[in-house]
Amino acid sequence: MSRPEKPKQFLALTAEETMLQLTARRTVGADYAAPIVVANASHASAVEEQLAAVDLSPQAVILEPMARNTAPAIALAAIAAGAGDAPLLVMPSDHVIADLEAFRAAIARALPLVADGWLVTFGITPDAPETGYGWIKVGEPLVEGVHRVDRFVEKPPLDKAEAMLASGDHAWNGGIFLFRADKFLEALDVHVPAMGRAARQSMERAARDGICIRPDAESFAACPSDSIDYAVMERAERVAVAPVAMGWNDVGSWDALHAISELDAELNTHGGNVTILDSTNCLVRSDGVRIAMVGVKDLIVVASGNDVMILPRGRSQEVKRLIEAMKP
Q1: Do 191 and 317 fall within a single domain?
Q2: β-pair partners for 310
Q3: Are residues 36 and 148 located together in one domain of the fold?
Q4: 300 in the same domain as 315
Q5: Tens of pLDDT, residues 62-97
Q6: I need a labelling partner for 47 at 20 to 30 A (CA). Which of 37, 293, 297, 319 fits?
Q7: Is the model's pTM score more than 0.70?
């Protein structure tokens, strides 16, 4: 269902609203300025339409001429925000956060350190030995509920993930950050100066049309491609982690969606396209074609357009393999 022209952040997977709309809603309130959205240039109309549909007006929509990973994208946003001491809350637009109050409480705990120049990441309290995420070893406390990062850990093998879970002093790296715009750009200048130069030049030469900012393509093409973790967070000195249990999920697979769905409700919705009898623990989705199931369990069934996918729970990570096999 997630296609290049309409990736998962533009889909209503976990609620009636899309994941982009739900993410933007987290920034509504007196403490927050209007959001800055960084997106692929081909998604300009989708971003504006979806945010307008929920009465949200971003202060800027930055349209990357090409993908350069998360560090350059955040640099563009930091520059658009004025490159000053304003704190930036950086959120991927395709994550689930079920407990918004817990998230906002973690933000409040971290803000004093952010004002003092620290770069903060939010560590997700782990509940499984997950091998698909990076992990963070939580170090000494700095203030209540916020700690120095001891080290970042790459996606681990299962035995190492089990040991980290049992230790109680590790968190998942959820990819959500809080820092001052100027301090992030300063760190970028120290550790990847070519990235900072390219981002600034592309914004200086950007085309602007209302809230839309189109960074100069030639300047941005010279920007090294790297994630914020590798470019900045793993290299900077003053990096902290705020551990938080907030019902986080990156919805990276149909199994992940299955885990956070209310399954009985899921089986009886979708506009009459799904009929289920005597079946348990299944996740079924259809955007058109009718699906009827009797006497089955532990299945994931997804119909999108003319395509129907059926697989047992626990094997949704093999979707990429399936798509490759379907290519002519």
Answers
A1: no
A2: 301
A3: yes
A4: yes
A5: 999 999 999 999 999 999 999 999 999 999 999 999
A6: 319
A7: yes
163 and 268 both lie in a single domain = no
**φ, ψ for residue 322 (rounded to 5)?**
-65, -45
Amino acid at 289: V
Positions of E strands within 144-295:
146-153, 170-180, 207-209, 212-214, 239-244, 248-249, 274-277, 283-286, 291-294
Domain annotation covers residue 1: no
d(CA 291, CA 32): 43
Give SS3 for 246.
coil
165 and 245 inside one domain? yes
Closest by CA to 248, choosing from 260, 265, 230, is 260
- Domains in the chain: how many in total? 2
CB atoms within 10 A of CB 119: 22
The pair of structure tokens assigned to 16 is 């009636």
Query: Using an 8 Å Cβ cutoff, are 119 and 184 in contact?
Result: yes
* Residue 3 counted as domain residue: no
Q: Which of 92, 81, 79, 66 is nearest to 32 (CA)?
A: 81
Same domain flag for 125 and 81: yes
Q: CA–CA separation, 188 vs 103, rounded Å?
A: 26
pLDDT tens, residue by residue, 31-44: 999 999 999 999 99
Question: Amino acid identity, residue 164?
Answer: M
Stated as kind and residue range, the H or E segment containing 106 is helix 100-115
Helix, strand and coil in the chain, % to nearest 5: 35, 30, 35
Of the chain, the percentage scoring pLDDT greater than 90 comes to 69
Domain range holding 301? 254-326
Cβ-in-10-Å burial (0-12, 13-18, 19+) of 327 comes to: exposed
